[in-house]
Structure formats: structure tokens, C-alpha cells
Write a structure and sequence with these properties.
The complex is a heterodimer of chains A (about 750) and B (about 350). Chain A has 33 helices and 6 strands. By secondary structure, chain A is mainly α. In chain A, the strands form 3 sheets. A two-stranded antiparallel sheet of chain A has the order 1-2. In chain A, helix 16 crosses helix 18 and helix 17 packs antiparallel against helix 18. Chain A is globular and about 85 Å long. Chain A starts with 13 loop residues before the first helix and ends in a 15-residue tail after the last helix. The relative contact order of chain A is 0.09. By secondary structure, chain B is of the alpha+beta class. In chain B, strand 4 and strand 5 form a beta hairpin. Chain B starts with a strand and ends with a strand. The chains are: A mainly alpha (about 750), B alpha+beta (about 350).
Chain lengths: ~750, ~350
């Protein structure tokens, strides 16, 4: 009989216990030691991926030495405790897992090592003391160190996983190493890349220009009229930025919810033709960078816009700048964000059990009464959910208010100007970021608190086999009337996006030309060098593709991993963990951008100006989407599949790999697609994080728009959209369909 | 006999609620033991504690003599057949059955051989290439059984295996399970709420109620000698009536039930007031006063094909009577006289 290998109760001979001890433990100890002894401790200035250090002075050169040599050769004596912490866990290799000393060694070594690594990273920076008060306490110092490099990162990672294995050995989380490791990793990363930057903002807002803490200045700034004045209610002056943003957010939230509901009802409950078309067309705005819609609106309704020109020619109406200001922002954001409301509400509308409506009818309720008293109340949580999503997206939107805002100032643009404008007031930017964060976090908290746990998964109600009641006439007509103008406008806008690039100069020369495409994307063949990409856009294009392609699988992977833990594992503090991982969704891109600049410009994690910061930003901005898709999909898989796998001898990692993932292909596709698309279309954080070496397409396009090169900007945008469509098709092919042997169910033909 | 499974003072609490409270039992090797009880009694929790899918709050669990309290399900030598079968929908029958074997260090050839043997054992030879969705419910269950069996586990667990099958199929399948178990000599623990099923297949039954063990014993012991009202009412049906022990005579007691005097095993109860559990089949209904002793009126009569069920009102209260003799069918409203047969009455200690 094949009995599983149990940890021996009594220690047998030395080599036996060494061989039988955890594979994972050995792995991470080897990695940690390799990081300390072999790889460069500090980050090379030439970037994460350059391997110059291999040939350029390794291992003795100060910048490239591994940890052991840093201590012995370069007098970086504060790294001694690191070496000690690497020795402490070693005895655990020879102790069985059930021995309390095994766990103690791991917890002590890993915990202290990790804590100390962080501590020394913050205390000692590039120019001496990392914290000013230490300078006051100890006087100045000539010691310094650079940001963490491969070596230091591997050692940190090693310590973290050794620590989590210690926790598992103590029995936490049912003794599962894989799960405890993943939780540890997620918490560490979310703390490092979400909380730390936001924390930095908070701290920075309390400082004045000299770098000293000035609380009264902070109070002055945060209550300034600029933010909170209500002057617009009774005069021609502008209101404070905060009120503007709030008002905009509420309007957009309401409008997108109403429109999304109209579409959802039309698609599921009427005999509307071309439903498939509406479903796919509704996804189009998701793969469009949001500000491109604003751009198209300018081309249509701006002073030199097509529609205005037509009206002038036909009816002699002088064109005005009416599109600039709140109106323009509203139109653009409603067009951009309604699809999200639609996706949320379609799940909600379909989830209303038909048998409830049928019951109402047998109780003599008319169509209208059924709808108003039964269906709509059942949809209320979903409606509130959609409203809050629209609200948060609107507040976080940067591109549209920037190009269409005119005099209507909102928080996201003001933050940008506070940093990039003439003032360069980082403190003010931080204060504004706090206000914005307050709004979005409140909305996020409200959503979680009032709408309960269902904020993740769309309603996955097991379909009763009833048929949905047809919409009452009033509602159907209302829906049509709301939806139709929207569809028409969308079609026009997208027509503009696709074809606007072929016009020479809007407002002046309306001849058909390929000029913009040629300027941006020309390629030449040269005898000497092969293909020359000499179009102006290629640099940002390839960078964007590269960064998005790298971050998408990482985002989807991390998201699905966390989704697995959230759905399948029970452990103490799980609610808090869930809240933390979704938190990054509530932090607007501008805030993250500012935070990253503040946090990652100096050691210990020094990554501004590199591609790494972009990848990291995307991973944590988009992780909630991956988690949500994963949670929704995994909730539909029967837990007894997991349990069967466990009783058959597989651990969680094997179960995840062989049982769950194959069944999750649609979720994997969704996660990859969303992550990729959001990376390609991101702007609000990206605008702060681009650099000379790493220019992103969206930032480049926005730059062109500020220059007035509308035609060029739209041409580039249309190329981006086509590329994304292609990528989505590729992802579908690569990940493949899952085979369940199910016959395709026929779509409801009602 | 060696013990295959042992529980020592095991408690399992979910927050405030105790699903299982200080239970202890041993299960011998090679026996089929059923955990029986109503919904919420703790039997499924107990099964999951054996499997390692839940961890005990207090107490110790031993399998095959070794303590496994802190081991997870993947480390215990236990296989489980789930109520919903839990077949992996994206794998063929063959892949499902081989799954556990691929975790061990067997060669591919050995894995395939054992898997095919397993399929033969449950009568599904040749079905290896099909997907679970292409099988009937009964066939799916057999695949689930084969998947658990091929690992030759120390203990095999069944979680309400017959609940998804139709009535006719249940009898056949439970007999197949019993045959298989006896042929292979596997220690098997079976969970069900159906007492007829439990009586039919088990070597021993553990009856659970409200997180504790109510009684443990062979089917015969449980049916004939229930220790309290719950067990007597759960295994078969029982009418509980008040009676009086007049005196003790060796092992037996002379009991007066509503005027009828009988001799029954006294079971350690002293003279005085006592409750008697009377099986419905042990009450006979007669038309004339000569044969019967207590007068009664028929309230309801239901014809069920193989027997007739009566609800009868008398001085002892309302009694439930089953008549499978059916000399005559008596209409509701008629007056009858009831008497008790020799078997099927049992004194219940006042608790």
C-alpha cells in the first residue's frame, strides 16, 4: 500500500531528516543565500535588466558587489545582522516539522531578517540618514547606500517565505505552506506598492517647502477656498475644486447607471434586434483610452469641429466652445463609462429570478406593477453598485477633464498641474490627493458596507428555467428613448476615431491624406541596418506593448492566486485581507502616480524612470479586476472538487494547477484581456511615471493633443484600438477553450 | 482486531456552535460502520474530521494506530466518495480514476494497470475514455467509488452515497457497495440519514443526535434494545406510552400497559412508572372484545399496498399502527380492540 510520507515522530539519523525536510524550505534558503553570496546587492544604475555588471567590475566593484563582499570589502557593516538572520533558520532543516523549534527557527530568522532588511533600507539612504530626525539625533553621517538590487530582493523574498513557512509549521492556515506564502507575498506587495506610496503622500502633505513638518500650513491648504468655495452657486466665480469633482461624479454616476440599466433591460427583456451587436459594441469603449473619446468629441463639436462647421454652413450658426467645460466632460465620461455599468447591470438584471416575477403575475400584478414592486427593488443593490463604480471612475478620470475641461477644474487635473505646472508645489498636490482619496475611499467603503459581500461576484443566481417577463410598455419606451441617442452618438464618435486620422487638419484642410499614419508609423528598409522604424510613434508604441505584455500575465496571475485564497481558504483576518487587496481600486491613478514619485525616487526601492515602475503600477492598479474575475469564476466551481483532490493526496498547489485552473480558462482569458487593455489605455498614473527611456503611447498622444495635432493623435489612437482587438483575439487562441463535453446551450430566443 | 479509526474526546466548534461535542469511538478494521442521525446531528462533520477536511477543536484522531490530528486531508490515508461525486469535469473517466495514483511514485504503466483494475471492479470496463458529463448518475457514482478504491486506503468514507439515486436503484447500489466492501475487506465509514439503509448494510451503527453519540451497536441491538426514546423513534418507529412495572422477576419485569399485563426484560429499571416503546407492527387490532383488551377508535386508515397504516385513539393516547397481515381492512370511525404482540415492546429508562 502506498502510504504518504509522514514526518517522523522521533528524529532518525541526520541524513534522513535532511532529505525528508520540506522542498520549499530548502528552495528558499538556497535562493536567499544565493542572493547574499552571489548576486549584486544594490541596484545597478543602468536599469533592472542590464547585465553590464557582469563584465564591468563584478564582483569587487563597490556598486556591484554581493552582500558578503559589501560587508567585508566595502565596510557596510550594518549588513551583518542580515548574515546572522540567514544562519538562524538552518537548524530547521534537521528538525521535523512537528518540533516546536523548527517553527521557532524559521519565524525568528525569517521575521527578524525581513524586518531588519526594511529597517536598514529606510534608515540609511543615498545621502546618509533616511529619516531627518536621526540626523538631529546622531549628527550627519558619511555612510550611504543605494537602492535594493537583485541580491537584496532575493534575500528579502527568502526571508518572507521562510517566515510564512514558520507560521504554517505552527499550524496557521491548516499548515498549508503554499497558502500562507501567497498571503504573505500579497500582503507584503500590497503594503509596499499601495500603502507605502499613499502613506508617503500623507506625510508629504504635512511638510512645507523646506521639508519640515508644518501642520498649520497643512490645515491652511486643505481648507483653502480653491478647494471648497461655493461661490458658483450665487455668482459667476468658480466653485472649489472638490465640489466640482463631486458634482461631476454624481452626475456621471447617475447617468451611466440609468443608461446601463436601459441597455441591460433592452438586451435581456425585449425583442430588440441586433442584441449580439449591442453586447459586443458595448465593450468597445473599454478598449478605448478614455480621453480618446474626449478627443473625438473635440473633432466633432469643438470650435473647428465637423458638426459645428456643418451647422455654420447649413444654418449659419456661429460655432462656440460649448463643448469645453462640464458639458464636454459629462458627455465624454458617460460615453466612456456606461459599458462598465452595463456589464455590472446585465448580470444583475439576468439574476432576478424569473419565478419571482411569475409569482407576482399570478398574484394579479400588471407588468408595470411587477417591474416596479418586484424586479426593480431586487436590482437595487446592483444599481447602487453601478452608481458607485461610475462615481469612482469619473473622479479618477484624468484625460477627459484635461482636454475638455476648459475652466471647469477638477481634483485629478489640479493634482497634475500642481506637480507639472509652474508652481511645482508637491505639498499642494499631496493635499489635493488626500481630498480625492477621501472621496473615492468613502464611496468604496459605502459600496462594501451597504452592498455586502456581493460586491465581487456578479449575481450568479442559478437560473431557474423561467422566462423573464416582458418589460412594461412605459419602461420599454423609456429604455429605447434613452438608449438610441447614446447608440447614435457612440457610432458617430467611433466613426470619427477610425476615420479622423485620415483628414489632414481639422478645421482648415479637409483633404484625405495618409500623412498622419506615415509620420507616425513609417518603416524603411535599409541595406545596412535592415528594418528602420523611423515613424515618430514607434518608440512609445513598442514600449507600451512591451510593458503591457509583461504586466498582463503578472497581474492576471497574482489576481487569480489571490482569488483562489479568497474563495477557497478560510483563515483569521480574511475579511481585512480582502479589503486590502481591493483597496487599490479605490485609489485614483493620479494619486498613485504622485505617491510613486514620492516613494520610489529614493532608496530602498528606487525605480522611477525605469520600466519596472510602470509594470508595478499596472500590476497593482489592475489587480482588483483580475481578482474579481477570478472570484466570480471560482465561486461557480463546486468546493467538493477541491476536497476530492485533497483526499486523493494532492496539496493545494497541485489542486490549483490540475483541477481548478483548467476549469478557469474563461476567467483567465478575462483577467488577461482586462489587465492588458487597462495597461494599454492607462493615462492618469502613467503621465507621472513616464521618462525619456520609457514613453507610453497614451502619454505621447496626450502630448500631441496639447500641441494641437488632433489628426495625428486620433490616427495613433485608432491604431492602438486595432492592436488591442488583435491582442484579444490572440489571447483567446492561446489560452484556448475549456473542454467539458457540454453541448452548447441555445441562447434565449425571446 | 486492530482499530482502524479512533476518536478520543473530539470536539469541533464553528465559532459558538458546537457541531460535535466530546465524542469518542473506535472502529475496527474491515468493518462497515454507519454514522446515522437526523440533519444537523454532526455525522457529516464527524466524517469530514476523519477525512481531514476539518480540523478538530479539541481531542485526538487516530487512523491505523497513528495519531493524525494535525495532518491535512492530503496526508491521511483516507479516501472519500462525495455526495455530489465531485468528478473532475475536464478529465476523462480514466484520468479521474488515475488522479490519486499519479500523486504517488508509481510508473505510468502501474498507474494505468491499477486504474483499469479499479474500473473493472465497479463494472465500468471500457468506459475509460468518456467524460463525466456523458455518464448517468449511477455510472458517475461508480467512477467516484473506483477513484477512491484504487488508492487502497486505510479507511474509505461514503457521504450519503445514495441520496442522488432514485428509490429502486438505491437498494441495488447499497447491496453492491456492501458486497464490494466485504470482498475487499475495507474499513468503511458510511454516513446516511436513512435508517433502513443503515440497518441493511452495516456491521455497526453509531446513532448521533445533537452533536453527541446517542447509541452505538449492531443493527439488531439498536432496533431491539434502544437506550432512549430518540433511538427507539429513529430506528423504525415507536409509540411511547406510559406504563407501570409491578414487580421484577429475575431478568424480566411484569408490566401493566393500560390494563394489559406483559412480561418484558426489565433492563435494570426498578418497579414504578416507566415508558414503553411499542413498534407499530406490534399492535394488533381486533374487532371483538374477547381477543383484544383496550378499546380504541380508528381515526385514519391509509392503504400502502403491502401494508395498511392506522392512526388509532385510545386510553394510552394516539397510536400509530401498521398492519401487514390485512385480514380485514378497518374503516375510520370504527371501534376496535388492541392487543400487543410478543415482540417489539421495549422498556425505556426514564431520562
Amino acid at each position: 500500500m502506498n502510504s504518504p510520507v509522514l514526518a517522523p515522530e522521533n528524529s532518525s539519523s541526520f541524513p534522513e531528516t535532511l532529505i525528508k525536510s520540506n522542498f520549499s524550505l530548502k528552495l528558499w534558503l538556497i535562493i536567499a543565500w544565493a542572493g547574499f553570496l552571489i548576486l549584486p546587492w544594490y541596484a545597478a544604475y543602468d536599469g533592472f535588466w542590464s547585465f553590464i555588471w557582469l563584465t564591468d567590475g563584478y564582483p569587487t566593484f563597490d556598486e556591484y558587489s554581493p552582500g558578503i563582499l559589501q560587508i567585508t570589502m566595502h565596510q557596510r557593516w550594518w549588513l551583518w545582522p542580515v548574515a546572522l538572520s540567514l544562519l538562524v533558520p538552518l537548524p530547521a532543516l534537521f528538525l521535523p516539522r512537528t518540533d516546536a523549534r523548527h517553527a521557532a527557527a524559521l519565524l525568528l530568522g525569517g521575521g527578524f531578517g525581513f524586518g531588519y532588511m526594511l529597517f536598514q533600507g529606510f534608515v540609511l539612504g543615498l545621502h546618509g540618514w533616511g529619516w531627518d530626525f536621526l540626523g538631529d539625533l546622531f549628527g550627519p553621517t558619511t555612510l550611504s547606500q543605494f537602492g535594493l538590487g537583485y541580491g537584496a530582493l532575493l534575500v528579502c523574498g527568502g526571508f518572507l517565505f521562510i517566515f510564512t513557512q514558520g507560521l504554517a509549521a505552527r499550524g496557521a492556515i491548516k499548515g498549508d505552506i503554499f497558502v500562507s506564502g501567497t498571503i504573505g507575498l500579497s500582503i507584503a506587495m500590497v503594503t509596499a506598492f499601495v500603502f507605502y506610496p499613499v502613506g508617503k503622500i500623507l506625510i508629504n502633505s504635512l511638510k512645507n517647502d523646506e521639508g519640515d513638518y508644518d501642520f498649520s500650513l497643512f490645515l491652511e491648504k486643505i481648507s483653502s477656498n480653491n478647494i471648497w468655495s461655493l461661490a458658483c452657486l450665487n455668482s459667476e466665480l468658480n466653485c472649489g475644486v472638490a465640489w466640482n469633482s463631486l458634482w461631476m461624479g454624481v452626475l456621471v454616476g447617475v447617468a451611466t447607471t440609468v443608461l446601463g440599466l436601459a441597455f441591460a433591460l433592452l438586451v435581456t427583456r425585449t425583442r430588440m434586434h441586433a442584441k449580439g451587436f449591442v453586447r459586443t459594441a458595448s465593450l468597445l469603449p473599454i478598449i478605448t483610452p478614455p480621453f480618446v473619446i474626449g478627443l473625438a468629441l473635440i473633432l466633432l463639436f469643438g470650435r473647428a469641429g465637423a458638426v459645428n462647421a456643418f451647422l455654420e454652413w447649413a444654418f449659419d450658426i456661429t460655432p462656440t466652445r460649448w463643448i469645453y467645460g462640464l458639458t464636454g466632460i459629462l458627455v465624454a465620461q458617460i460615453l466612456a463609462f456606461t459599458p462598465i455599468a452595463f456589464l455590472v447591470l446585465i448580470g444583475v438584471v439576468e439574476g432576478v429570478s424569473p419565478s419571482m416575477e411569475e409569482a407576482a403575475q399570478t398574484l394579479r400584478a400588471s407588468h408595470w406593477q411587477t417591474f416596479w414592486t418586484v424586479s426593480l427593488p431586487l436590482m437595487r443593490p446592483g444599481l447602487a453598485n453601478a452608481f458607485l463604480l461610475g462615481f469612482i471612475e469619473s473622479l479618477a478620470d484624468f484625460g477627459n477633464p484635461l482636454i475638455l475641461g476648459g475652466n471647469y477644474e477638477v481634483l485629478s487635473t489640479q493634482i497634475f498641474f500642481a506637480i507639472a505646472g509652474a508652481q511645482g508645489d508637491l505639498g499642494m498636490a499631496a493635499v489635493l490627493a488626500i481630498v480625492l482619496l477621501m472621496f473615492t475611499l468613502s464611496a468604496f467603503y459605502a459600496q462594501r458596507r451597504w452592498l455586502g459581500k456581493n460586491s465581487y461576484a456578479t449575481v450568479t443566481g442559478k437560473g431557474d428555467s423561467g422566462i423573464h417577463v416582458r418589460l412594461p410598455k412605459r419602461v420599454a419606451w423609456g429604455a429605447y428613448l434613452t438608449a438610441m441617442p447614446f447608440i447614435v452618438l457612440s457610432l458617430v464618435v467611433y466613426g470619427m476615431i477610425l476615420f479622423g486620422g485620415f483628414v489632414e487638419t481639422w478645421g482648415y484642410k479637409h483633404n484625405f491624406t495618409f500623412k498622419h499614419y506615415i509620420d507616425e508609423f513609417s518603416i524603411h528598409w535599409s541595406e545596412q541596418y535592415g528594418i528602420i522604424w523611423d515613424g515618430a510613434a514607434w518608440n512609445s508604441f513598442w514600449t507600451t506593448l512591451q510593458i503591457s505584455a509583461i504586466s498582463a500575465p503578472l497581474t492576471a496571475g497574482l489576481g487569480l492566486l489571490i482569488a483562489y485564497i479568497l474563495v477557497r481558504q478560510k483563515f483569521w483576518g480574511k475579511d481585512v485581507f480582502e479589503f486590502l487587496t481591493m483597496l487599490s481600486f479605490a485609489v485614483p491613478g493620479t494619486v498613485i502616480g504622485v505617491g510613486y514619485i514620492l516613494a520610489f525616487n529614493v532608496p530602498p526601492i528606487e525605480i522611477t524612470g525605469t520600466g519596472v515602475i510602470l509594470v508595478v503600477c499596472f500590476i497593482f492598479r489592475n489587480m482588483p479586476t483580475g481578482i474579481r474575475a477570478g472570484v466570480a469564476a471560482m465561486s461557480q466551481l463546486d468546493p467538493s472538487l477541491d476536497e476530492a483532490s485533497l483526499t486523493l493526496g494532492a496539496r493545494s498547489f497541485t489542486t490549483l494547477r490540475r483541477v481548478l485552473l483548467p476549469l478557469l480558462r474563461p476567467a483567465i482569458i478575462a483577467a488577461l484581456v482586462f489587465s492588458f487593455v487597462r495597461a494599454m489605455t492607462a493615462i492618469s498614473a502613467v503621465i507621472f511615471l513616464v521618462s525619456a527611456d520609457y514613453d507610453m503611447a497614451t502619454s505621447y498622444i496626450l502630448g500631441r493633443v496639447e500641441f494641437g495635432d488632433y489628426g495625428l493623435a486620433i490616427a495613433y489612437s485608432s491604431v492602438l484600438i486595432l492592436v488591442m482587438l488583435g491582442a484579444i483575439a490572440l489571447i483567446q487562441l492561446a489560452v484556448g477553450k475549456r473542454e467539458l463535453g457540454r453541448r452548447d446551450s441555445e441562447a434565449l430566443t425571446i | 482486531m486492530e482499530t482502524a479509526v479512533e476518536f478520543k474526546h473530539v470536539t469541533k466548534a464553528f465559532g459558538e456552535v458546537q457541531a460535535v461535542r466530546e465524542i469518542s469511538f473506535t472502529i475496527e478494521r474491515g468493518k462497515l460502520v454507519t454514522l446515522l442521525g437526523p440533519s444537523g446531528c454532526g455525522k457529516t462533520t464527524t466524517l469530514r474530521l476523519i477525512a481531514g477536511l476539518e480540523m478538530v477543536t479539541e481531542g485526538k484522531v487516530f487512523i491505523g494506530g497513528k495519531e493524525v490530528t494535525r495532518l491535512s486531508a492530503s496526508d491521511r490515508d483516507v479516501s472519500m466518495v462525495f455526495q455530489s461525486y465531485a468528478l473532475f469535469p475536464h478529465m476523462t473517466v480514466m484520468q479521474n480514476v488515475s488522479y490519486g495514483l499519479t500523486m504517488s511514485r508509481l510508473s505510468k504503466k502501474e498507474v494505468s494497470e491499477k486504474a483499469l483494475e479499479g474500473l473493472d471492479l465497479v463494472g465500468l470496463t471500457g468506459y475509460g475514455g468518456r467524460l463525466p458529463s456523458e455518464l448517468s448518475g449511477g455510472q458517475q457514482q461508480r467512477v467516484a467509488v473506483a477513484r477512491a478504491l484504487v488508492l487502497e486506503p486505510e479507511v474509505l468514507l461514503f457521504d450519503e452515497p445514495l441520496s442522488n439515486l432514485d428509490a429502486k436503484l438505491r437498494r441495488r447500489v447499497r447491496e453492491e457497495i456492501r458486497e464490494l466492501q466485504q470482498k475487499l475487506g475495507l474499513t468503511t465509514i458510511y454516513v446516511t440519514h436513512d435508517q433502513e439503509e443503515a440497518l441493511a448494510v452495516s456491521d455497526r451503527i453509531i446513532v448521533m443526535n445533537e452533536a453527541v453519540i446517542a447509541q452505538e451497536g449492531t443493527p439488531h441491538q439498536l432496533y431491539e434494545d434502544p437506550v432512549n426514546l430518540f433511538v427507539s423513534n429513529f430506528i423504525g418507529d415507536a409509540n411511547l406510552v406510559k406504563a407501570e412495572i409491578l414487580r421484577i422477576d429475575g431478568d424480566e419485569a411484569e408490566v401493566d400497559i393500560g390494563g394489559i399485563k406483559l412480561k418484558l426484560p426489565h433492563r435494570g429499571i426498578s418497579p414504578g412508572k416507566v415508558s414503553v416503546a411499542i413498534r407499530p407492527q406490534s399492535i394488533s387490532l381486533n374487532g371483538s372484545a374477547k381477543k383484544g383488551k383496550i378499546s380504541a377508535t380508528i381515526l385514519k386508515a391509509s392503504y400502502l399496498g403491502e401494508h395498511v397504516e392506522y392512526s388509532v385513539e385510545c386510553s394510552l393516547g394516539e397510536l400509530f399502527v401498521v398492519d401487514n397481515q390485512m385480514e380485514t381492512q378497518i374503516d375510520p370511525g370504527s371501534s376496535v380492540f388492541i392487543d400487543f404482540r410478543t415482540r417489539g415492546l421495549c422498556l425505556i429508562p426514564e431520562s
